[in-house]
Records
---
Amino acid sequence: MLNLTQAQEEKEYIIKAIETDDEELNEFLFSLGCYSGEPITVIAHRKGGCTVAIKDGRYNIDSQLAEAIII
């Protein structure tokens, strides 16, 4: 299984799981529309994180968040 830090740019993936014990982080990702079964696309990898497209939005997320999103 891959996490977002290993994803190819501009390729759509389906989120399989969010691996975090941090409830606040889980709620934050859910509020962005980032949860199991949702499509996600890495627009670009950046130093310290990446830019992703979820639903109609684009977000910059840090490496810790990217590693928690399993695709």
---
Amino acid sequence: MKIMIDTNIFIDVLLDRDLLAETSAQVLTLCENRKIIGFVSASCMTDIFYIVRKHTHNTELAYQAIGKVLDIVKVCSVTNQEILKAYAFHAKDFEDCLLAICAKANQCECIITRNTKDFSEFGIPVFTPEEFLQDK
């Protein structure tokens, strides 16, 4: 099974957000143990670096966070074609639209996010970590 993982799932774990980190970590553990194949977009990686560095005030910790992410998921390519599709869609949130388009391009079965309503218009199943884990 292939899944696309939104930035907020990684941030839950990396910043140890109360009440959210545990189930997000369980999803990432499934990826780490190769039970499922996790994907992220390239922009997710830059967002993670920025958020961790801003939160910790430590560039080295931000690089360590990126290293951990790279150990457990694959970064999908974002081509001109995906950008053009997202642009043509004219969604309220371009980044979420692009993530959904990349998920489809990489044959992901769903997107895991904390913001399921933000993805409702893109025609791909979307789950919170808790919803996703109910079937696992």
---
Amino acid sequence: MKRLTRKEEEAMKILWKAKKGFIKDLINLHPEPKPLYTTFSSLIRGLEEKGYVDHKAYGKNHEYFPSVKKEEYRKLFMKEVVSDYFGSSYKNVVSFFVNEKKLNAGDLKKLIEIIEKGEKNG
């Protein structure tokens, strides 16, 4: 499974949220500015070629649905981000968020509790 472009990720987020839909319906869920029908259709077909999307045919109309779960993609995405930007160190990720003031001592205590609970149940 390959990481997607920003536009592809936007389309997948819409499809994950909708669970399924025809191109017209998915475009209606797209934030402004809405893409052209042909542009979005090509994007969805490209995602289908990559294995992220599948469809059910109703004559000439296709109803699309995700064939990759959001959680699967999130694991791949996060693994690549940690590898590419943090030297494969999750400790560096946490340090980054602490330095950016996105995590505080209370958050870290909760993380420690989650880790300890996981170690006991693992």
